[in-house]
Amino acid sequence: MKALRLLKGLAVCAALACAASAALAETWPMRTVRFVVPFPAGTATDLAARTVGQELQVKLGQPFVIDNRPGAGGSIAVMEVVRAAPDGYTLLFSSNSAISSNVALFKSLPYDPNRDFTPIAGVGLNALVLMVKGDFPAKDLAGFIAHAKAHPGKLTAGYGSSSSQVSISMLARMAGLDVVSVPYKGITQAVNDLLGGSIDFTFVDIGNAIAQAKRGALRGLAVTSLAPNALEPSWPPVATTLPGYDITAWFAVVGPAGVPADVVNKIHADISRVLAAPEMTEKFGAIGLVPQAMGPVQLKAFIADEIVTWRRLVKEANIEPQ
Q1: How far apart are CA 12 and CA 7, in angstroms?
Q2: 68-121 pLDDT tens trace
Q3: How far apart are CA 97 and CA 128, in angstroms?
Q4: What is d(CA 164, CA 29) in angstroms, rounded to the nearest whole number?
Q5: What is the pTM (predicted TM-score) of this model?
Q6: Domains and CATH numbers, the chain
Q7: Count of CA atoms in the C-beta half-sphere (13 A) of 205
Q8: Which one, of 120, 123, 124, 122, lies nearest residue 25 by Cα?
Q9: FRET partner for 152 with CA separation of 20 to 30 A, picked from 94, 175, 181, 246?
Q10: Do residues 170 and 247 lie in contact, with contact meaning Cβ atoms separated by under 8 Å?
């Protein structure tokens, strides 16, 4: 009898928990939602988060706040989310850097992407562009490689994300270049130093690259994707000169471990509706992104695959984990 009463009690508790979770999902969001971003304002991740957040705010009637927390390779932002309540109100909006790439780039992390995240929604894709100052002596990638080979150890590159770091290292390895790499908290700072002449080149997300090229101070030489980018087809792929070169950044929303499935599905559905709106292709295009919705189950598998991929890329690029 005691066992039967215990089983009945457990069943009631489970039913109440399910009902509470469903009610929470139906009413999400009831208050401000925070997108924690591991990069400074003005970066591709920040602009993507703001674009999606603004659309969600209009459609759902609650504030979506962008909380930029750069530093420590993204770990500061990640731990802010990992330690948050799993209620769907504190979410990480990040590129692949903090979600998958860091596993390969750091000897140890204060978090485990497979254990500490609840995958919610894939958001979009982004290519990077090799950028130099307008007065750089080379006019194309072949000329850049020739110039770098003629000045071994003299060219300095800046990076502000795992994608830009690996882009530089892969270029150096595949082309046989000797360059010096300098880390930055975000690509915006690297671009500023490129403009100021402190570094010689960097890889910039294509939205920022187009904006800088239009101003005339910087010039794009090649794009990291396998195919030319529709936003600026005049920039050839690096792979045209270095076959097999292919690096694409991606963006996703994850929560801390333990976000109820009903809440996850509600957030994913709302984000997917935003991404499916016809105007989002234009809005994302303006910042160099291509919308790409992905559900929680697919995203979980994708993150696991990407961890394997980035371990391979980091190894191929001869990057020593920090």
Answers
A1: 9
A2: 999 988 999 999 999 999 999 999 999 999 999 999 999 999 999 999 999 999
A3: 14
A4: 35
A5: 0.84
A6: 11-125+250-316 (3.40.190.150), 128-241 (3.40.190.10)
A7: 31
A8: 120
A9: 246
A10: yes
- Tally of CB atoms within 10 A around 308: 12
Residues listed for the chain: 322
Q: In what order do the strands lie in the sheet with 201-205?
A: 180-183, 156-159, 201-205, 128-133, 218-223
Q: Which residues contact 111 (CB under 8 A, 6 or more apart)?
A: 75, 78, 79, 82
The three-state (H, E, C) secondary structure of the chain, written as one string: CHHHHHHHHHHHHHHHHHHHHHHHHHHCCCCCEEEEECCCCCCHHHHHHHHHHHHHHHHHCCCEEEEECCCHHHHHHHHHHHCCCCCCCEEEEEEHHHHHHHHHHCCCCCCCHHHHEEEEEEEEEECEEEEEECCCCCCCHHHHHHHHHHCCCCCEEEECCHHHHHHHHHHHHHHCCCCEEEECCCHHHHHHHHHHCCCCEEEEEHHHHHHHHHHCCEEEEEECCCCCCCCCCCCCEHHHHCCCCCCCEEEEEEEECCCCHHHHHHHHHHHHHHHHCHHHHHHHHHCCEEEEEECHHHHHHHHHHHHHHHHHHHHHCCCCCC
Of 37, 39, 66, nearest in space to 186 by CA: 39
- For the record, the structure tokens of 13 come out as 């508790």
Q: For 182-219, what is each residue's pLDDT tens digit? A: 999 888 899 999 999 999 999 999 998 999 999 999 99
- Report the amino acid identity of residue 38: P
- The gap between the terminal CA atoms of the chain, to the nearest Å, is 59
Asked whether the beta carbons of 82 and 116 are under 8 A apart, the reply is: yes
What integer best gives the mean pLDDT of the chain? 92
- Name the CA radius of gyration of the chain, rounded: 22
